[in-house]
Amino acid sequence: MTVEMNFDGLVGPTHNYAGLSRGNIASSVHKGRVSNPRAAALQGLDKMEAVMGLGLSQGFLPPHDAPRVGFLRKLGFTGTDNDILALAHHANPALLANVCSASSMWTANAATVSPAADTRDGRVHFTPANLLSMPHRAMEHELTTRMLRRIFSNERYFAVHDPLPMNPMLGDEGAANHNRLCKDHGSEGLEVFIHGRAALSPSENDPRFPARQTLESTHAIASNHGLTRGQFIRQNPAAIDAGAFHNDVVCVTNADTMLYHETAFENPDALEEQLTRACEPLGFTPRFARADMPIGDAISSYVFNSQLLSLPDGDMALILPSHVEETPLAKTYVDHLIADGVIRQAHYFDLKQSMSNGGGPACLRLRVALGKKARRVVHSGVVLDAAGIERLRGWVREHYRDRLELKDFVDPDFLTEVHTALDELTQIMDLPGLYDFQRTAT
Ligand code: SUG
Question: Which end of the chain is more exposed for a tag (fewer CB within 10 A), N or C?
Fold first, then answer.
């Protein structure tokens, strides 16, 4: 049987608030605050544990190695690693902030994934996202690609493509702008690709805030993955300008169900009709639960940035941030979903550390639908059980700081601390030599 496995981003030791993402309201609002990487990582692990507790398979993707001293060397900085960090800080604190980001934790942006049932060659296809819209995120794709190729290495079951070329025409943010409607995870589904703009046909009403995903990138991914069907839908520019920098801030799908805010798409009636028609040949009718709460409530609570999960008994559950409980209209929407039988359960989690950078439950995970045989060949070092969660908790407690701000990145001990932690993590995961600092002497 095919089930969906969630690969959460393990929050890295450099988690911080640098206000790097224009258009992401939480990131801008929290710029310069002191972060708590230890709490952030533990909050993420609590969520992973809870999803496992629902009877679902859970994996993780390790943090990237930051500060990225190698990147600074390419910009002409020289000296020891610590000299370089201090020089970069002196030259431009924003440059240092960009190379220190822990943004790889939001693994919904790691890749777009097409399950085997949708692809011509019957393999699971991955395209690591190039994330070229934001300088700090454009540094992620190389290591993400390497990681995915080691975790999903069996080419009989998996194809990990190169990221799309780093060309402004092809801005790609991965699964955050990708939905899939299906009868069940093992049946052929309808992949719904969302874009913010058509790079080659700019329009008068393109949003003010960055529209990160281009139509051209979604066409390329669908074609590289060998999909036989796909829908290509534009985000409402008004949603982007209200703070929905990714579609998963205002929309979530699972199996035959789609929950979304009425502002997410320009013409929701037409969209529902279009998707219903496209699902007809697949033998099911999608269910839609459209919300009309103020868009500001949807974005501040992140109610749609939840994980909509199929439970082993076929019912659905929502994993939500605790912000929803503090936003009456968002909470009422969820209560109605339960009363109407759309979902059976709602579970709320304190994810404040990630949320303060605009990353909710859905941002923190990459969904991969896997058949039984494919599950067996996933690299086991990143697949979790209760003992694995405990081990990671112990590792976080041992190595992570509980407060961090920009000036800490030039603390001469910091880089060694991070490298020691990540070196140990590669042993825990049995992924030796994963990081650049383990491969080249700097
Ligand atoms: O790309 N925030 C991330 C949040 C990504 C959320 N992911 C999904 N919606 N799937 C971003 O804007 C903020 C980093 C900072 O400001 O320090 C940041 O990168």
Answer: N
